[in-house]
């Protein structure tokens, strides 16, 4: 299957233009899966500790509007995350969208930082500690939303569930790019799954210096097959879910606890 990762600027001013470029790329490459950054369709709310209900509501509404445009990416499945309110609770919701099933909530972010620029635990609540896979017509997918990438027990758990694609939408800074790539490689090896991630491109918005570097990592040895850049913000490669199934039979995946 053809999978696309990307980096998008965290800016309302340029989003429409960048979206059109992504659409052109996806159509040209005949992508079957598109991975978006973490909460990509509104300014990053957690850059400040000053929680504002109106800002949260505006972000929710902006994401709703952009999700309604996903049909232009067909026949691709779209994977990402967005702010939501569920039963009165603010959450960061991982989702899949495709032509057959429409929008499906998959997972709510559990591990939340509360640090300068990433005041996430202040802005929204933890979801349930549930890390379960979702079947699509093309592959079995599991989500690790940004910080969750550092909790390898869940990557390994996804491997035991037969996950073929580990999808990691991110909102990470320029000061830690190498560290995040190392985390992605480790998650791929531990799970025996392809690891795919998208992020905000290397620009400054609201004082946040984003790191870019969306990636595609293969499942057996954790080799990085491609990384996005300012010059190449979209990356599409052929990936084979069968390679993940084969990787799970090799070291270290076969070693049981």
Polypeptide structure, described:
This protein has 257 residues and is an alpha/beta fold. The protein contains 6 helices and 14 strands. Helix 4 runs parallel beside helix 5. The two termini are 32 Å apart. Strand 4 and strand 5 form a beta hairpin. Strands 1, 2, 3, 4, 5, 6, 7, 8, 9, 12, 13 and 14 form a 12-stranded mixed β-sheet that branches. It has one domain: Nitrilase/N-carbamoyl-D-aminoacid amidohydrolase (4-Layer Sandwich), CATH 3.60.110.10. The mean pLDDT is 97.
Write a concise synopsis of the structure shown.
With 257 residues, the chain is α/β, with parallel strands linked by helices. Helix content is 26%, strand content 28%. The protein has a single domain (2-247), classed as 4-Layer Sandwich (Nitrilase/N-carbamoyl-D-aminoacid amidohydrolase), CATH 3.60.110.10.
